[in-house]
């Protein structure tokens, strides 16, 4: 497949999704916040909402690919399946050799599709037949209080974050929290071993020590990338990305705009406070400070030039995207309460499917009205359950191909 993502808004042709499954039913109040949820979605409604999202995409000419199908197809080779299971268990930090063997045998006994679904939903201790006479305090403790031998991955429907597609390549991210770190391996295997993705250049690898997440990376144009240095993305990761992506890469990109954004859950990634909706229109959190701290990174003969850009967001966008005029649309119409409420429910997290046409959550109706006033066509999707995971239509999707424009 010729991956091709050179903008945030070019006509969307192919997109990657994960339909939420049983992993959401493995959320419990005891460890909700460790798994980065604020509430427990009702799975069947969440799936209905997700199917609605996928249908809106299809009705607009977008081909929807599902991660689990791509991975199942990839792992149909037995040797690769074995390699994957072993690496997945190691990456899950299963060091207890008894549990490791138990999980490995169990996963091998499943057909590939079931195996893929199972590693996502997690494996509870009571799902396995275990000989209780074996000396294992870990097993006994699990009977009492710890239900999982393999924890679930409830955040997987936020496909934006684990692997980011940039230009014709991919960033296989190191996620900040252990709750999400393993998600990356699913698409990593597809990219590295599915023949459809052969030859995809990689700009980051999950074993690098510094965290970076896809919600912090925006492709503003075929020359300019925006990156958030945030709660989830470290400055060192951006340095590595700059080197691999700008310097060693033969693609069209020339510049990275790095925004320093506050370390706070509501602002978690750049795309929770800033998304692009048209050539010259941007949707932002009303409370984003005008003079956001910004660094511009460009390549030079010796290495990099970088400097602090002391301009307003509007001027920065005008200057670096070569625009005469930029319109900033404010989430919640900057109302003192609505702006926070709607941003919390991902009002600023729109997914453009072509210039000036976006998908957003229906619950953020004040923001949606503002977008329409600015001439943006807004397609809304139901959002009572999906929003409980703190991510919107952009977070919940990863474009693979967008039509280019110049
Ligand atoms: N690109 C995004 N804004 N992703 C939102 C991810 C939400 C997820 N619960 C997390 O905390 O990681």
UniProtKB/TrEMBL annotation:
Protein location: Cytoplasm
EC nos: 3.5.3.6
Top-level class of the enzyme under EC nomenclature: hydrolase
Residues annotated as the enzyme's active site: 395
Reactions this protein catalyses: L-arginine + H2O = L-citrulline + NH4(+)
Predominant localisation class: cytoplasm
Pathway stated in the Swiss-Prot or TrEMBL entry: Amino-acid degradation; L-arginine degradation via ADI pathway; carbamoyl phosphate from L-arginine: step 1/2
Alphabetical UniProt keywords: Arginine metabolism, Cytoplasm, Hydrolase
Cellular-component GO terms for this entry: cytoplasm
A single GO molecular function term of this UniProt record: arginine deiminase activity
GO terms for biological process, alphabetical: L-arginine deiminase pathway
Pfam families (UniProt xref): ADI
Family: Belongs to the arginine deiminase family.
Entry-linked HAMAP family: Arg_deiminase (MF_00242)
The name this protein goes by in its record: Arginine deiminase
Gene: arcA
């Amino acid at each position: 497949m010729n991956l091709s993502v050179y903008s945030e808004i070019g006509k969307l042709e192919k997109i990657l999704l994960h339909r939420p499954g049983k992993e959401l039913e493995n959320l419990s109040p005891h460890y909700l916040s460790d798994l980065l949820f604020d509430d427990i979605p009702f799975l069947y409604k969440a799936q209905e909402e997700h199917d609605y999202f996928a249908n809106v995409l299809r009705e607009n000419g977008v081909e929807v690919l599902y991660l689990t199908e791509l991975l199942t197809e990839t792992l149909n080779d037995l040797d690769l399946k074995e390699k994957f299971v072993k690496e997945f268990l190691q990456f899950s930090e299963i060091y207890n050799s008894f549990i490791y063997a138990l999980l490995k045998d169990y996963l091998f006994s499943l057909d590939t599709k079931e195996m893929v679904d199972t590693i996502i939903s997690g494996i509870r201790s009571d799902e396995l037949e275990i000989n209780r006479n074996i000396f294992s305090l870990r097993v006994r403790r699990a009977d009492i209080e710890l239900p999982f031998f393999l924890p679930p991955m409830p955040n997987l429907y936020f496909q934006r974050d684990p692997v980011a597609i940039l230009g014709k390549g991919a960033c296989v991210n190191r996620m900040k929290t252990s709750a999400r770190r393993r998600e990356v391996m699913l698409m990593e295997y597809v990219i590295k071993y599915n023949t459809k993705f052969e030859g995809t250049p990689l700009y980051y690898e999950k074993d690098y020590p510094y965290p970076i997440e896809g919600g912090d990376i925006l492709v503003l144009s075929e020359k300019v990338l925006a990156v958030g240095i945030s709660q989830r993305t470290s400055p060192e990761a951006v340095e590595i990305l700059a080197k691999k992506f700008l310097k060693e890469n033969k693609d069209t990109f020339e510049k990275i705009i790095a925004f320093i954004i506050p370390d706070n859950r509501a602002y978690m990634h750049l795309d929770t406070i800033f998304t692009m909706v048209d050539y010259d229109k941007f949707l932002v959190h009303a409370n984003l400070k005008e003079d956001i701290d910004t660094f511009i990174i460009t390549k030079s003969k010796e290495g990099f030039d970088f400097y602090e850009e002391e301009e307003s967001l509007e001027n920065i966008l005008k200057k670096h995207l070569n625009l005469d005029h930029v319109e900033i649309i404010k989430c919640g119409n900057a109302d003192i309460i609505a702006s926070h409420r709607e941003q919390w429910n991902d009002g600023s997290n729109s997914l453009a499917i072509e210039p000036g046409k976006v998908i957003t959550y229906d619950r953020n109706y004040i923001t949606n009205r503002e977008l329409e006033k600015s001439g943006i066509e807004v397609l809304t999707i139901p959002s009572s359950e999906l929003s409980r995971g703190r991510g919107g239509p952009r977070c919940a999707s990863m474009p693979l191909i967008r039509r280019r424009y110049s």
